[in-house]
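Encode chain A's predicted structure.
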Amino acid sequence: MSAAERTYDVVVLGAGSTGENVADVVVRGGLSALLVEPELVGCECSYWACMPSKTLLRGTEVLAEARAARGDQRRGGPGPAPVLGGGYVGCEMATAWQALGSQVTVLQRGDRLLPRLEPGE
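Encoded structure for chain A:
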């Protein structure tokens, strides 16, 4: 029997972190669930956004801690780093590059950073 022919207790639309958690809770509760995702399970967070940028940010924290432990306060970075986009991914990348010692310029279309996260005026 194909997935289209089955009956499910719950249909979860979107396999991002929330969708995956909802489906898990449903199944652990003894119900059946269908998880629908048109692109990648885990969505952009797992593949090109949150997780990769969080990994970079943690690396810069470790580097800063190691430098502090050695009394080394050098801030030489990989050079100027333009970041295209002022959404949450761009801002996280800019933070990581700046922590490595780069002079960062965020290039954002529009009049403010994080346009989807902050309410407009």
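The CA atoms of residues 81 and 104 lie 5 Å apart.
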